[in-house]
Amino acid sequence: MHSILSLSGVSKTYGSGHVALSHVDLDIRRGEIFALLGPNGAGKTTLISIVCGIVTPSSGTILVDGHDAIRAPREARSRIGLVPQEIAVDMFSSVASTLRFSRGLFGRAPNQPHLDQLLKDLSLWDKRDAKIMELSGGMKRRVMIAKALSHEPDILFLDEPTAGVDVSLRRDMWRLIGTLRERGVTIILTTHYIEEAEEMADRVGVIDKGRLLLVEDKAALMQKLGKRQMDISLVEPMAAIPPALAEWQLSLEDEGHKLRYSFDAQAERTGIPSLLRALADHGIGFTDLDTSKSSLEDIFVDLVERKEPASAEAAA
C-alpha cells in the first residue's frame, strides 16, 4: 500500500544535549489508523511536532504525500490536521468564526456546508455563535477537533485526544474517526487508553526514549508477542504458593482462590501438562481451568521493559 507519510532517519537533539528522537524510520500507509504508544517523555509529541512543522528536526527527511516537509512546509502542512494535547485557540472568537479562520489559513475556499457538518458531528451546532471562552473544557476540546478538520486534511494527528475528556466526547470522537477512515483519511494517534488503540488501530508503533522500538500490524503483534494466561480455580484457597510449584512462577489471585500461570502459546513446551501433574502430586485440587490472551497493554509494558537495558546502553 502506498505511503502517505514517510520519515527517514529523523532525529532531534536539543541544545542541552537531550536526545528527544533518535534516527526514526517510519512509513504510514494511506487510509490506515496508526497508533503510536509510549510512556510520557518517550518522544511521541516531538515526532508529531516535527511532522507538523512546529519543531525543526536535527536530521532526517519527511515526505508528506510526496512533499518534503522541510523544503516545502506549506504544501506538506496543508495536508495535515493536528489536534494537540493543549487547547490553543483565540478564546474571544466564536466557534463558527474560529473554524472559518482556520480553513482560510490553509488557503482553502469557503465551504460552509462542510463546517456546518463538522459542528453537527461534534455536537457544537448549538454553540456555533458562542465565544470559546464561554465553553466547558469538553466543548473546547471539540472545537480543537473541528478546527483540525476544517481544511479537509488527508492526514489527521490526534495527540492524546481523549485524555481527561468525558465519556460523551470520547464516544463522539471515535464515531467521527470511523467516518473519516471510511472517507480515506489517514489517522495517527497517540494514546494512554491502550484499549482504544487495541480496538481501532490497524498498526501499532511502540516508542521509548526517542527510539522506535517496533512497528507491527496489531493482529500480528498480538499473535507474535502476546502471552496467554491460565487461571486455575482451586477447591481450597491458598495462603501462599508451595515452594514445589516455584518453577512455574505462579501468582495467587482472587484472595487465594485462583492460581494464575502465564505462558507463551507459541513455545514448543507450554509447561501446562507438567504443572497439572505437579498439582495432582501435591494434592492440590481444582475445579476449573480458564485461558485468555494478554492485552495490547500487557504487550506494550513487556516490550518497554524488555528494551530497557539496550536503551540504557545506547544512551550511555
TrEMBL record:
Query: InterPro entries, from UniProt?
Result: AAA+_ATPase, ABC_transporter-like_ATP-bd, ABC_transporter-like_CS, ABC_transporter_ATP-binding, P-loop_NTPase
Q: What PROSITE patterns does the annotation carry?
A: ABC_TRANSPORTER_1 (PS00211), ABC_TRANSPORTER_2 (PS50893)
Q: Which Gene3D superfamilies match?
A: P-loop containing nucleotide triphosphate hydrolases (3.40.50.300)
Q: What CDD domains does its record include? A: ABC_DR_subfamily_A
Q: Which UniProt keywords apply?
A: ATP-binding, Nucleotide-binding, Transport
Q: Which Pfam families match?
A: ABC_tran (PF00005)
Q: Does the keyword Transport apply?
A: yes
Q: Which GO terms describe its molecular function?
A: ATP binding; ATP hydrolysis activity
> SUPFAM superfamilies annotated for this entry?
P-loop containing nucleoside triphosphate hydrolases
Per the UniProt entry, what species is this protein from, by scientific name? Sphingomonas hengshuiensis
Q: Where is each ABC transporter domain found? A: 5-234
Query: What name appears for this protein in its UniProt entry?
Result: Multidrug ABC transporter ATP-binding protein
Say yes or no: keyword Methyltransferase present. no
